[in-house]
Amino acid sequence: MSFRCIPATKDPVATLAYNPWTLAIEPFQVSPQTWYVAGQTWVGCYLIDTGDGLILIDTAIPESLYLLVNSITSLGYSPKDIKKILISHAHFDHCGGARAMKELTGAELYMSKEDTEFMEQCPEETVVLDPDSHPQMFTVDRYYSEDEPITLGNITIHTVLTPGHTIGCTSFFWTETNPVTGAEYKIAMHGGVGANTMNDGYYAASRYLTPALRERFLADAEKMKAIPVDIALPSHPNQIEITDRAGTYSHANQPYLDSTVWADFIEERVRQVKALMDK
Ligand SMILES: [Zn+2]
């Protein structure tokens, strides 16, 4: 199925805090070794089974941690087998549950140096953004390096600094092999593309982010689009619709395999940023 985005979730934090069942979703497989385990449809969290331990990408918010943990255990995995937690960027909806997940799992926690400094200097623009959420400050164990991919088991994740949505937003690229056909799939999750932080009103109020980040996002877009990606995963499921095929995965079926989605997704985000600039 080709690229499709859907409207953003309305009042997501209050909904997750007070009516979570309306956003709840069972874990579902998206590629040979990766599952969507957020337990809710607002913010994506992914679990990669490397064959020698688990990698978790993003944690969502404290109010939905039980949905995340329940998704992981219902797949038959133990949170203790999570060895690395990768945070895409320092906004509370992706890292709000980071401290709790680090304590629960004992995993090494990764975030970019740029976003770690942003978080430390501006908690009000990163982790403390919504009165209905109660994020905890956390310490980062390792910064990303584009020269040093993150390897666990048979998975190697290459990170790319993709500033724009935040200053240290980081995107993830890795390869998985179909155990039935032997086909290799290039998989990617962009670290953050929300135009909500790439408009003049946001920059006027921010203590830290400047329009230079928007310029960088737009300047990088062609380079990002050119990266070959067979399975594109969203950091928010509305940005690339994937929940419509939840539960349909099989190694033979590959419901998310479409090498056109990634470039179309980047193109759509560029269009949204430019539309805000024209306002
Ligand atoms: Zn964000």
Oligomer: single chain
Shape: globular
SS strand fraction: 15-25%
Q: In DSSP terms, counting alpha (H) and pi (I) runs of 4 or more, how many helices?
A: 8
Give the cofactors and ligands.
zinc ion
How many domain modules? Answer: 1
Series of H and E elements: HEEEEHEHHEHEEEEHHEH
Can you walk me through this structure?
With 279 residues, this protein is α/β, with parallel strands linked by helices. The chain has one domain (12-278): Metallo-beta-lactamase, Chain A (4-Layer Sandwich). The chain has helices spanning 12-18, 65-74, 92-95, 98-105, 113-121, 200-205, 211-225, 261-278, and strands at residues 28-31, 34-36, 46-49, 54-57, 82-86, 108-110, 150-152, 155-161, 170-177, 184-189, 231-233. Helix 7 (211-225) packs antiparallel against helix 8 (261-278). The two termini are 32 Å apart. The mean pLDDT is 96. The structure holds zinc ion (ZN). Residues 89, 91, 165, 192, 194 line the site of zinc ion.
